[in-house]
Amino acid sequence: MNNFPNNENIQYQGCEVSILYNFPNNENHSFNNQENQKEIQEKKGIEAIIKAMNNFPNSENIQYQGCEVLKNISLNNQEMQIHFQFPILNTQNSTNQFGKKINWSPISNKNKEKDLQDYHQRKKQKKKEKKRKATEIVMKDKYKKTKRKKEIIPTLDLNLISIIIQAMNNFPNSENIQYQGCEVLKNLSFNNQAKKKNNNESHNQFQNPIVLKSQNQYRIQSGYSYKNQPQRRSGNQFQSQVQNQTKIRVLKGIEAIIKAMNNFPNSEKIQYQGCGALKNLSFNNQENQTRIRELKGIEAIIKAMNNFPNNEKIQYQGCGALKNLSFNNQENQTKIRELKGIEAIIKAMNNFPNSEKIQYQGCGVLKKLSLNNQENQTKIRVLKGIEAIIKAMNNFPNNEKIQYKGCGALKNLSLNNQENLDEIQSLQGIQLIINLMNNFPNNSSLQEIACETLSQLMN
């Protein structure tokens, strides 16, 4: 690919080989080969792919294959997500991982034999140097290893996110490119580390009981082992997610995602990836939440949920997107109600009563929508949303996440709303909360929110 940068066929085949290299079993794309991803990264295959996409911006095949291979490389790869925001390779001053200058010119026709001999000599020297470096790396500590790994990562001249968005804008009628582009942006804006941290924290609540004196006071920790605590997210990992969210917004990636959803309303895979991308982009990001509302992204999400009521994946991503968009955003909460988003959420919960993840997301989004919003509280009661929440809690009594979100939703719905309070009492919500406290005696978070909800209901 480097020797023939202007040959469209070679560039296309090279991108396709990279896809197969990431997923050797082509029939099962859930197989994620992280070793091959790492090898492509170290051998500077990413620069070659990006260079091909830049050299042939009007080639639909190359843009499609490039988006797909970058999607595969960025999938569940936190290191790549961190470094996916750098510039295309400067061929004049490029060096390999050993600091040697790379010769990008193809083999000349005049001195083929001499060039081939030089090539084989360089190859032998490279093998020797590689063995020597490998022995040195083993002796180094973890910090030096990670530091060296970061130094190997190439510096690109053009932002990768802009290349993906440019491909989506150049081929608005290509369903495959729009699908791949939405998935790449979804992967780049996803914070996998935060999810792992939340899972570890919920697990440690069983191992380390915490006595809470008051909601606003310090916590007395007994039998608490700091060794078992989840590690904090590193600054680079958190910063990469925020930077990618911001870059995608600045480069008008949100417009590209919503445009793809509007252009292909009957494509399940684009609606699924689009809802997922908007969900990740709006996570703890007020500017993105506002931007998505202004670009009518909320309409696109609710439309996708209404068009595919029996698609569990779209319903899950749609509920998650509405949950993130409504977090601490009164304007978005009002907009979701006006666009009949509450109806879509409750309908999803009723259509998939046995789906834990939809019940969890449904309870979570109703909790966010009802926080300090009297009109939403009333609307949820009228649409029998309180019944849906209590039904979810009864169907999954051993799922602490659903219990926590459901209990929080009942707490918000009953705040300064007597009609909702009476409705919860008539549906035996008090007994449900007492059962919750008995089922999870060592879960401090559940005990705390259950006590607050009971106190509110009894008063």
Automatic annotation (TrEMBL):
ARM repeats: 44-79, 252-289, 296-333, 340-377, 384-420
Biased composition (Basic residues): 121-133
Span of domain LRRK2 ARM repeat: 255-417
Signal sequence extent: none
Comp. bias intervals (Basic and acidic residues): 110-120
InterPro entries, A to Z: ARM-like, ARM-type_fold, ARM_LRRK2, Armadillo
Keyword tags: Repeat
Superkingdom classification of source: Eukaryota
Chain spans, region Disordered: 100-134
Name of this protein: Protein aardvark
Organism for this UniProt entry: Anaeramoeba ignava
